[in-house]
What we know:
Elements: H1 5-11, H2 15-26, H3 34-46, H4 57-64, H5 72-97, H6 99-112, H7 116-131, H8 138-156, H9 167-196, H10 205-214, H11 221-234, H12 240-252, H13 258-277, H14 283-296, H15 308-320, H16 324-334, H17 340-357, H18 361-370, H19 376-392, H20 396-412, H21 414-417, H22 420-436, H23 442-454, H24 461-470
Amino acid sequence: MYDSKLITLLQSFSSNEWKQFNRYLQSPFLNENQEIIILFDYIRKNIKKKRKGLLQKQVVFRVVYPRKRYTDDLMRQLMYNLHQAAEDFLAFQRYQNDKFTRNCYLAEIYDTRDMEKHFQQVIRQLEKKRDKQKVFDVRFYEENYRIEELKSLFLEKQKNRKQELNLQEVTNKLDHYYLITKLRFSCLMTSYQHLFKFKYELFLLEDILKHLREKDYSEVPAIKIYHPLLESLLDPENETHFQQFKAALPQYEQRLTKDSRLELYALARNYCIKQLNKGKTTYIRELFDFYKMALEQDILWKGDYLSTWTYNNIVAVGLKLQEFEWTKQFIEEYGAALPEEKQEGTHTFCMARVHFKMEEYDKVIHLLHQTEIDDVFLNLSAKTILLKTYFELEEEEALYSLLDSFKMYIFRKKESISYHQDNYLQIIRFTRKLANLNPYDKEARQALQAEVKAEKRLREKGWFLRKLDTRSV
């Protein structure tokens, strides 16, 4: 029972939801099953004790049915009933918080009962709320269409056949909702196709794009942003589309929800990364600017935290542009936004990267020696920086010692790092070869250059090739 869908669902409840669900079950209007109240009360008292024996089916059954012999069918039915009640409670809560859906249901009810005044009052409430909206995302256009649809259905029932129906308004609002939704999902599908090699069929897209190129939708902000972005993702070689997207973004983005902006910025960054992978180095500045704008708008967070992945990526981009002061400020300012258990190790590693890039090698050694980095992958990256630092300082004894301990660490952690061990083993192998290379042996140097270029598992290829170039005599 401990691993059942019922327990899993209840474990997801917040403390407030536990209280509200208890009240929900106690209401005779919402629940008349006293047995599930007993079951819920028992689970509520024992679920956090972390003693699975307390939640064995036979044990719980005796609490609910003290005078009955255990039958699995009855216990399953009891658990199902409580699970169903929990789902109904969550849906009920969602309905209570969704005033728009509630008012739409009311409008339909008043329409069915031919209560025109009541119907019109609800429609006025919906339109008043809509007219006050300052955010125009997909949900706004969906609601806009729904209001016109309700009005249309009401007008169709009226006896005055000469009255013009709002069919044009209904179809216009439907077009806006459909086009925005189609553009949004087409952007996501196109981006995912490039990133993950998924295969999607974008039905009707050519006709839709032809229509959008011919008709002006200035009154629909989301279309003005998503349309050039989609054109950019479909035809990345034509950079005019991306410039149009960039021009539209500051004009319209504040009229979109935070989630919509987060998604748009992520798609834009993916476009920049794709261009960088093609060798278009100017897009590193574009990528940097999108990160900075996202930071300014607080739209990089996942829940309450900034992910270490995003944090490290921003540092990497800043360092490529040699924006050292900005990058150091970012590391200090946003380190506290990381998950608490990741803060110290990630901060140390990123500051070490900055110092290495600035050729402040003593500071790199000091930082990486004073802090123990628990995260395996960060530790691997930190050891790589330390290897390169010892090489730059020609600290041969420290270098060879680290090469040996690094290799042992990889073998100890091989189950955790999976295929990544190949890259780090190649780093160790080539660092040792580089350190042992005779700078006067031109043939050996050229042979090692060729070997580095041919090694597909080596992610530090650029650094090794630069060192080989400078190692010639």
